[in-house]
Amino acid sequence: MRIGTGYDIHKLIPSTESDFKLAxxxxxxxxxxxxxxxxxxxxHALIDALLGxxxxxxxxxxxxxxxxxxxxADSAELLAYCLPLLESNGNEIENVDITIITEQPKLxxxxxxxxxxxxxxxxxxxxxxxxxAKTNEGLDAVGRGEAIAAQAVVLVV
Length: 157
Hints:
This protein is of the alpha+beta class. The strands form two sheets. The chain has a five-stranded mixed sheet. A two-stranded antiparallel sheet has the order 2-3. Helix 1 runs parallel beside helix 3. The longest helix is centred in the middle third of the chain and has 14 residues. It is globular.
């Protein structure tokens, strides 16, 4: 068994577009992430956790923000790309635990859909996936609504 952890944070800016993605789903929100790809912090943290558990580097190694190929990339596609890498090393995902830290938007109505989408991408039962939402109680950039962050822990066998 191997454990991996991941973390990601992105600055939030006002937006009139509905391009806010978390854990592979679109969520109505008046802000968007400043990022090279779609800025999905939950998936970015998850990718780092999975790659770390398998000792395969990190998200920046595989998808550098200096490469125009990944400009506005769909993070769900990047996550799907990682599965054959894990499998080639004989790794199988046992479970995933993600914590998304944000003051807004409120995520409770979307947690079930996030779990379903991640299960679809990872090709595992949704019972192996936990997604939680927390606030930072008004503290730091996340607490002031200037950023959104996520942490992920995975177990692979």
